[in-house]
Task: structure prediction
Amino acid sequence: MDKDHGQKQPLEGADASGMFDASVYIDRREALRTSLLSRGVSEGIILFLGNRESPMNYADNAYPFRQDSSFLYFFGIAQPNLAAIIDIATGQSTVFGDDVSMEDIVWTGQVPAIAELAARSGVRNVAPRAALAGAAARAGSGAAPRSGSGQGPGAAKLIFLPPYRADSRAELAELLGISLHEVDSRASLPLIASAIALREIKQAPEIVEIERAVAVSVEMHRSIIECAKPGLCEAELAALASGIALGSGGRLAFPTIATTRGAVLHNHDYSRVLREGGLFLVDAGAETVSGYAGDLSSTFPISPRFSERQRAIYEIVLAAQKKAISLLKPGRPFIDAHFAAARVIVEGLSGLGLMRGDPDEAVRQGAHAMFFPCGVGHQMGLDVHDMENYGEVWVGYDGEPKSKQFGLASLRLAKPLRAGMVHTVEPGIYFIPELIARWKAERKLESFITYDSLDEWLDFGGMRNEEDWLITEDGARRLGPEFDKSAEGIEASRG
Result:
């Protein structure tokens, strides 16, 4: 039984501070504990390290603070330099942190006491941050075995999720009495599995927050599509996206991609000027104050209308997305949607004389990946690539091995879908001159790719369209407000 406290009151979304009702966090911690018990882990201490401030160039000049998503999920407190533990045997939780000093208040203003923040998370036990070392020592030296329960002779063990920051990794090594190089390999697989099982099924309040994030993301995209014109710099449109995200009370969910170079999948250089006849690709999303993300991509002509070639490729991308969406339902492996989208891309490019041969065999051998070298989507929630630090093979593949084939190796989600999962659907077509030149020189998969026809397409760039979807009990639902991404709809927005 959960030993924490808090009144249970239904809440549609997070409050102005970004926290849900205390009952949400109490239930999550108890569900985590129950899941671990079902996996044979009946003793031990679960350790969560919150994030610290990250200095840009000296201690008092820090990057904008973002709390660790696992800490947010189970405790909800977005303050730096916190830690927390859950005793698996008793369900008792403790938050470790220090109240601000008068010297701090001069610079930051008054902030709630740690005890107050913990109470809002349904936790009654608090202790100074320095007391964490003693709690770790009492739990027992060393981490629990990676795949085991951590039980056996002696004291209980500490179990933890994989760290992704150097400071967290160093603190874990010190607390656990293990070398820095051992830390990652000692993260608990039962804890990883339990956390994924909980976090990938979104609760109703989480869906509210994701819908909020997607709504702001739609506004970001619509504004860019309407405002873009020849002569503007990419940076001006990236700034427009950032301003809308900040103006909503949140922030960007990830660094914006706003580029005339759509063939560079993750281009963050905003130095180019928009030119008549070109394409503009924007991949941008907002994050709510509670930490939940939206993630959309749009591609549109810098001129008022698509050219004939641009429209042809755009229609293929939309058709691939539509086909992938038609396969979204509980129990259906997401990899099926990926292959279906890839097949539509092969068929469409074959119609333009750029590919040939049997579409199914082309996809099986990976020929489509020259034009579509990434996956068709990923899970989304508190992280734009949800739970990525837990390990892609666990989050997206349930521990099954991933393919090493070019393109398919970049698919982050392949396993069967479950009601309550949220993920993106983002097919694209990219003409990457360097990749085309390499494959052509190697005569790679030339029975499926008409290399001689590609010379006039080398300057085309790339396109993708991305939406966010919730798996329901009998299918799927697109999240966020209506956003007409048809070619006609895009052109209408261009004026």
